[in-house]
Design brief:
seven-stranded mixed beta sheet; alpha+beta; 3 domains; 463 residues; four-stranded antiparallel beta sheet; Chloramphenicol Acetyltransferase; OB fold (Dihydrolipoamide Acetyltransferase, E2P); 24% helix
Amino acid sequence: MATDVLMPQMGESIAEGTITRWMVQVGESIERDQPLLEISTDKVDAEIPSPAGGVLLAILHPEGETVSVNEVIGRIGAPGEAVASEASGQIESAGTPVPGTPAEGTPVQGTPVQGTPVQGTPAEGASAADVSAPDTDEGPTSLETRLRLYSSPVVRKIAAEHGIEIARVAGSGVHGRVTKQDILGFIASGAADAPAPTSTATTASAPAPARGTGGFAVAPYLPSERVEIEPMSRIRQLTAAHMTYSKATSAHVTTVFEIDMTRIDRLRRKIKSAFLRQNGTKLTYMPFIFRAVSGALKRFPQLNASIDGNNIIHKKDINLGMAVAMDRGLIVPVIKNADTLSLIGLARTANDLAERARNKRLKPEETQAGTFTVTNPGVFGSLFGTPIINQPQVAIMSIGTIEKRPVVVTAADGSDALAIRTLSYFAITFDHRLIDGADADHFMAEIKETLQKDDWKELAAYR
């Protein structure tokens, strides 16, 4: 019998996933645990291995479609084996079935399979309340409508915070279910500020056009322009919605510090070969920075917090998000309990997370529960950046390029001279609703002090 390929549940809070790419096509052979398809969720992109070996008999949901977890999305079996497509009711097979003749054991379209409830009929053991909603003033609510409105807790919380009725939002999920991306896009479009329609009737409408702060529509291109239209990837859509939401939520302020990395640069160059030999991982600048950030967060815990209405949520753990740039977008794996790790542990964990992020091997929980984020655009030559806060955090730090520059130094006798030092600009963007400028500056001064003066004694064995 054919083996069902199910949409996996990539974390407790994940209710659906979007199929971004089928890596094997119908009729092609595949081995067990060979990558079969790529999916994208609110938390992570991942390659899904095949649950069995054989031939891909059917693809029931195409690329770009969002599917509920545990729903059948494909089938694998022996060559020539026929299966029924749940998506269309037609028979798809790696072989060539006789037209109009269903395979043995295959249900004919329109004939319910024994044990499978017909749409609108409760399954055995299910009460009527499980299928049909109670009547309202407007009449009975359909199952499809209830599924659409029963969105995830995250979506309902965002809708409540912005005073939005979920019924006003066009859903792109299964059964028209409103996803986090839908609600954030609705807010970003300015449609949330428009008054709700007085009619209670539900009507289909086109997505709201992008609007400026003045409420006027802005055309993305003119009819006379030569353009090529490319659909956004799932991760790009989520990033766009999340960043727009963050800018609309937090009062962003950025301050920049220049930090002398000369001592760390010299130490790293001296021991990096021995470090790699003994630990099997590279020693970059980032473990030093993570150590300094973790120590500063202990001294200034208000930067390791979140805001919930009028409440401040103080996080007891220090979980550092590290932004990883990929061809398909940006992802932020999290170093859990970073303050408890040694420099070696930070190096191993950071390198491992970055490598698996680029290879789509991250688990959803490895991108969750971050309390503070560090991003490093300096690897691309940027002097410094003014990053957007990764909600629900209240601060994010950006590392500029680390390079040699001429600088004035003062000797012990008070005389000045020009010297070559290895310098970098560190920028922190913080939420001014919670953090004052003085708090952010004290935090950055603590990081600067650590990076410029710490002896890093745990690396003494490598010197």
